[in-house]
Write a structure and sequence with these properties.
The protein has 124 residues and is mainly β. The protein is 0% helix and 48% strand. A hairpin with a 6-residue loop joins strand 4 and strand 5. The model has no long low-confidence stretch (mean pLDDT 96).
Length: 124
């Protein structure tokens, strides 16, 4: 049984930082591209960042809205995906999900597995 469990969300002031984690189990983690998505109230879910697995050399892709502020990384030893978020803005407020796909670091791929999400709120 595949499980993806996000953690690290919380309340942070504008300009602050958070580091999200996604612990994976029940899958061969290194084979999967791992992505972060987010959904704000009343909005559709959107792509944030993705990092490829071992076959793609761990290449990364980012949404334009987070480039230069967010960094995705992974530990294939710990089966964990990370998202370092800096210079946070109120518009980054959302429920953040991690997801896994075998189809490479493609934001538009079909993601096979999803976590339950962790809430990030950016407010003064």
């Amino acid at each position: 049984q595949v499980q993806l469990v996000e953690s690290g969300g919380g309340l942070v002031r504008p300009g602050g930082s958070l580091r999200l984690s996604c612990a994976a189990s029940g899958l061969t983690f290194s084979r999967y591209a791992m992505g972060w998505f987010r959904q704000a109230p009343g909005k559709e879910r959107e792509f944030v960042a993705v990092q490829g697995g071992s076959r793609s050399g761990g290449s990364t892709r980012y949404a334009d809205s987070v480039k230069g502020r967010f960094t995705v990384s992974r530990s294939d030893i710990r089966n964990t995906l990370y998202l370092q978020m800096n210079s946070l803005k109120p518009e980054d407020t959302a429920l953040y999900y991690c997801a896994a796909t075998l189809y490479g670091p493609n934001p538009a791929a079909t993601y096979d597995y999803w976590g339950q999400g962790t809430q990030v709120t950016v407010s003064s």
